[in-house]
Each structure stands twice: as C-alpha cells, then as structure tokens.
C-alpha cells in the first residue's frame, strides 16, 4: 500500500505520509460539509451571500490540500534516499 510507511521507513517518510493523510481527510470533509451546507442553505432559504461564503471556504480548503500534496510530491521526488 503506497500510503503506509514501511517498517524501516525514515521519520521524514512517516511525516510525509501523515501530511498526505491529513490533506486527504481535509479534501473529503470539505466536500461533505460543502455539499451539506449547500443543501441546508437551499432548504432553509439562506441568502446567496452565505452560499458564496461557503464556496470560498471550500475553495480555500481544497487549495490548501493541493499545495500540501504538491509539496510532499516535490519533496519525495527530490529525496536522495528514495528507492
């Protein structure tokens, strides 16, 4: 399994795995809360500005996850100890 560190993995590799897992959890929860918020907002008749605020918060969380994933990928690619 690629996201599980080997028993002999370095601390650096374990940290990368934790970062990727955190990014995956943030992406998943963002989508669940975003879809739930859109549904709830339409049912309760919230003003459109609240929907846009929810959209912006979701975009910010997804951009953060994308940046973290990119930085982990770049660090792993440049790692001299990588097999």
Distance between the termini: 15 Å
The tally of beta strands, per DSSP, is 0
Biggest sheet descriptor: none
Strand content: under 5%
Mean pLDDT: 89
Helix content: over 70%
Shape estimate:
elongated
Helix/sheet category: mainly alpha
Catalogue the unreliable spans.
none
Number of helices: 2
From N to C, what is the helix and strand string? Answer: HH
Rg, please?
Answer: 17 Å
InterPro entries: Uncharacterised_Ynq1 (IPR020308)
Keywords: Membrane, Transmembrane, Transmembrane helix
Transmembrane segments: 20-40, 52-73
Pfam family, one: DUF5337
Please characterize this protein's 3D structure.
This protein has 83 residues and is mainly alpha-helical. It has helices spanning 11-44, 48-77. It has a domain at 22-77. The protein is 77% helix and 0% strand. α1 (11-44) runs antiparallel to α2 (48-77). The longest helix is centred in the first third of the chain and has 34 residues, at 11-44. InterPro entries: Uncharacterised_Ynq1 (IPR020308).
């Amino acid at each position: 399994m690629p996201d599980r560190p080997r028993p002999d993995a370095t601390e650096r590799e374990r940290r990368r795995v934790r970062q990727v897992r955190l990014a995956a959890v943030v992406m998943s929860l963002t989508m669940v809360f975003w879809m739930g918020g859109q549904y709830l907002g339409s049912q309760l008749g919230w003003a459109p500005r609240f929907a846009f605020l929810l959209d912006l918060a979701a975009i910010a969380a997804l951009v953060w996850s994308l940046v973290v994933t990119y930085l982990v990928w770049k660090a792993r690619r440049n790692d001299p100890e990588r097999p």
